[in-house]
Amino acid sequence: MVESLRPKGIEDRAVLQAMGKVKRHLFVDEALQPQAYSDNALPIGYGQTISKPSRVAGMTVALQVGPGMRVLEIGTGSGYQAAVLAEMGARVFTVERIKPLYLSALERMVRLRYFQVKVKLSDGTMGWPEKGPFDRILVTAGGPDIPAPLLNQLDESGIMIIPVGRKKREQGLTRIRKQEGKWYRQNLGRASFVDLVGSHGWKTEQPKTG
Ligand code: SAH
pTM surpassing 0.85? Predict the structure, then answer.
């Protein structure tokens, strides 16, 4: 799988190495395991998906994660992205709003011995104020705006990667860098993430189609 990422422009050795260490088939249902190493998003239940590997790789590269960094992830889902961040040496704080997904990610992190990953059940658009500020923030669901609490929990010289779009399932992947108390914003291209639902996100979830 990692070899297939190189032709897609993913050259960051640390990211490729980290992704090589995480067994993606352990993050999906047994029936989907044969597809776990192809470059596709996969359903994880409750209308949610685990992003395709090239997307996970691209976001991890853009985040510029280094060992020992405190990283906040919003949208734990399966825990796959959190595991990749942990393999990069980060201390990961990840928030999920759907209880069964939270519970299974928690169980998976313990089973796979990712003790440097802390998982919380709550509305991630509020961030995780008790654990902040964070060197990096990664949001893996798309909302209409950048949640103010997340901006406030980003440390000086911090980087946040977040999909933002006024239409559901159509976002611009956005990079925010905080420098001398100011925020600088850059668009990294189009993306299609599931809804970020919460007090600083969409108020309701997209009804499931198909
Ligand atoms: N990063 C995950 C995939 C995320 S899918 C992985 O590697 O598997 C997006 C996730 O964001 C879903 O699980 C969804 O429930 C969650 N989510 C949406 N809005 C949220 C919010 N306000 N707070 C926390 N999680 C949220």
Answer: yes
